[in-house]
């Protein structure tokens, strides 16, 4: 594995405000924050009367901003909903082809010419479509064991939808009748606390109704009884094991926070982050670009993006000198000669084959759990 | 400090696709991915002719999707730009009041009645506005040392703007003439590699032209010469130290990745994440809601969101049973009895005063650097 780390995978940052795909970070500073909040009321009271008047006026301006921003959130949600609707017929077509509900032009002829040669005549749709797509994304691939593959072959579709109250989203995994479990839909729901400052409330998964002896999230260990023991039957012991299907039993926060010590809290945090990574990868990447994940093109695209960029950026170094046309008049005169930048990182991007640096949540707390 | 961890601060997830505020995560798996990509071409070649035909058709559908998605990105960017423009007059007004360029109604009278009593008559605008705002956000507060405060009192405004080529954003810190450094604008620019899969290329900062002896990012240590030494002058030694102004000297990736061992790479990754957290906090939170950060209301709002939600969600538990109206016809019949969810996390949210769990980047790699 390479250690190259020239870049960080992170926000495109093309808008000012957004509540999406923000992964929030630990706030173990709550008490401190409450204290700060208290202090700040004092700060306001201690202002001299003219300054307080000005701050009151500023608060009105802030209120106007907040109203505008609320409208922005509304309009953006409407835009997103519009496109989700536009995408639906394409998702339906994909479903029908993948599962052999409809046949594409030309494929029937191919089936005929192949008949007798091999098993392809019997193949309906695109076998293992979702299994292969999930195995080609590194986040989801890590979750899939060899044992899981048998069950994931029966996966017919994955969909996501918004959940409004409480805010969040739901993933639905549609399965064909299969020898592993009774359910035909497995769901995973993420409930968020707030829109602007999105906070995960909890993650919920469908309880899987495994057929006897078919549970993929547990292993049965058989032990021979000790010699001389009266009991001659083998002792069986079940043990939790790795499986993609653990995704439907997300980590649970204990009722009483005091049951958690720092290490347990860190571990739980890590588990919840991991669980959310999988869910959001499926929602953001797999569902929308499943065909490209199936073919592997989505993997290649990730690579190409990086290499294209290496060439591109070298030509753009002088872009930094562009004027920011949003500047206030008072400040325009300050804006010319201050753009010398300590640009030591430039060369490293030319190196091909490097990997991307991790990045904590944009605008949120850093990924470490801050305990004090 | 509390260890309560009932919730994770993360994406609101209200849209399907977004490139914003995603903090990407480590991809040290690049070689593996390239191998996978290679394997996948083989997968395609090994498909039987009818299946290959179907996959070709699916790729056309995916292309249609990608075109729609590109339009969505365009429309969303336009919407965001529209609102950024709408916000500008409010930002300008704020600037003028904060810096005493204009006086608000009523404040002049207050100044008169105060005259002679204390120094308030001389106060222009809202003193220390940005310093206090930055100190009330826990991400930025952590960066500010006591020494920094003297210089940050001269901060007149902070603005952000998009950078188009390469994609990213620029923060501009406008300073009044001050005894610390010559610059009147300090900038920090984040360059991203790609829009859909946003990856940080590099971060650049203005080189600060400190006045002699005024550098806040270094400390001068004076040592007495050793007894008996011929040199009787004290030895001075400069040492880097903590300072908000280190934000303008972001971590640099070395030219040659091979110079980095795993531990160094992890450390660098952590530094880059931390640096990006500060930048995106300023862009996403501080600039847009500076007044609320100044007054402390933004801190309180964070708390209130959580507590409000505790009450709210308990009433919404049955929302899970809503039908997803985007389901394909083929699947609707499967969609009724599968919503039993393992809902053990529910109780914990009732506890007040708990804090938020950290969350890695939605849809991206988990925050740890995966080295293999």
UniProtKB/TrEMBL annotation, chains A, B:
<protein>
    <submittedName>
        <fullName>Nucleosome assembly protein 12</fullName>
    </submittedName>
</protein>
<keyword id="KW-0539">Nucleus</keyword>
<dbReference type="GO" id="GO:0042393">
    <property type="term" value="F:histone binding"/>
</dbReference>
<dbReference type="Pfam" id="PF00956">
    <property type="entry name" value="NAP"/>
</dbReference>
<comment type="similarity">
    <text>Belongs to the nucleosome assembly protein (NAP) family.</text>
</comment>
<keyword id="KW-0963">Cytoplasm</keyword>
<dbReference type="InterPro" id="IPR037231">
    <property type="entry name" value="NAP-like_sf"/>
</dbReference>
<dbReference type="GO" id="GO:0000724">
    <property type="term" value="P:double-strand break repair via homologous recombination"/>
</dbReference>
<dbReference type="GO" id="GO:0005634">
    <property type="term" value="C:nucleus"/>
</dbReference>
<dbReference type="InterPro" id="IPR002164">
    <property type="entry name" value="NAP_family"/>
</dbReference>
<keyword id="KW-0143">Chaperone</keyword>
<dbReference type="GO" id="GO:0005737">
    <property type="term" value="C:cytoplasm"/>
</dbReference>
<feature type="coiled-coil region">
    <location>
        <begin position="26"/>
        <end position="78"/>
    </location>
</feature>
<feature type="region of interest" description="Disordered">
    <location>
        <begin position="298"/>
        <end position="372"/>
    </location>
</feature>
<dbReference type="GO" id="GO:0006334">
    <property type="term" value="P:nucleosome assembly"/>
</dbReference>
<feature type="compositionally biased region" description="Acidic residues">
    <location>
        <begin position="299"/>
        <end position="342"/>
    </location>
</feature>
<keyword id="KW-0175">Coiled coil</keyword>
């Amino acid at each position: 594995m390479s250690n190259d780390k020239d870049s960080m995978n992170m926000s495109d940052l093309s808008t000012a405000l957004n509540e999406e795909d923000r992964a929030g970070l630990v706030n173990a500073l709550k008490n401190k924050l409450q204290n700060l909040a208290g202090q700040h009321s004092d700060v306001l009271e201690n202002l001299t009367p003219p300054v307080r008047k000005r701050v009151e006026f500023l608060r009105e301006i802030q209120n106007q901003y907040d109203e505008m921003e609320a409208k922005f959130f509304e309009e953006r949600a409407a835009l997103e909903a519009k496109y989700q609707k536009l995408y639906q017929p394409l998702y339906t077509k994909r479903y029908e082809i993948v599962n052999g509900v409809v046949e594409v032009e030309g494929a029937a002829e191919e089936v005929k010419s192949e008949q007798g040669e091999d098993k392809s005549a019997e193949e309906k749709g695109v076998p293992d479509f979702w299994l292969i797509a999930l195995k080609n994304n590194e986040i989801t691939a890590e979750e899939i064991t060899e044992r899981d593959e048998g069950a994931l072959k029966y996966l017919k579709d994955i969909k996501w939808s918004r959940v409004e109250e409480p805010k969040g989203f739901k993933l639905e995994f549609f399965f064909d009748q299969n020898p592993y479990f009774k359910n035909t839909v497995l769901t995973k729901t993420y409930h968020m606390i707030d829109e602007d400052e999105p906070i995960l409330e909890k993650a919920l998964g469908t309880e899987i109704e495994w057929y006897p002896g078919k549970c993929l999230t547990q292993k049965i260990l058989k032990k021979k009884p000790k010699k001389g023991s009266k009991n001659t039957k083998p002792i069986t012991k079940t043990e939790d094991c790795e499986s993609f299907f653990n995704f439907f039993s997300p980590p649970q926060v204990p009722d009483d926070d005091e049951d958690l010590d720092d290490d347990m809290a860190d571990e739980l945090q890590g588990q919840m982050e991991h669980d959310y990574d999988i869910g959001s990868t499926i929602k953001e990447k797999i569902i929308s670009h499943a065909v490209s994940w199936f073919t592997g093109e989505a993997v290649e695209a990730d690579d190409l993006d990086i290499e294209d960029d290496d060439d591109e950026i070298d030509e753009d170094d002088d872009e930094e000198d562009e004027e920011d046309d949003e500047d206030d008049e008072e400040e325009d005169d300050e804006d010319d000669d201050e753009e010398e930048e300590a640009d030591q990182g430039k060369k490293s991007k030319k190196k091909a084959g490097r990997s991307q640096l991790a990045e904590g949540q944009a605008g949120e707390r850093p990924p470490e759990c801050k305990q004090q």
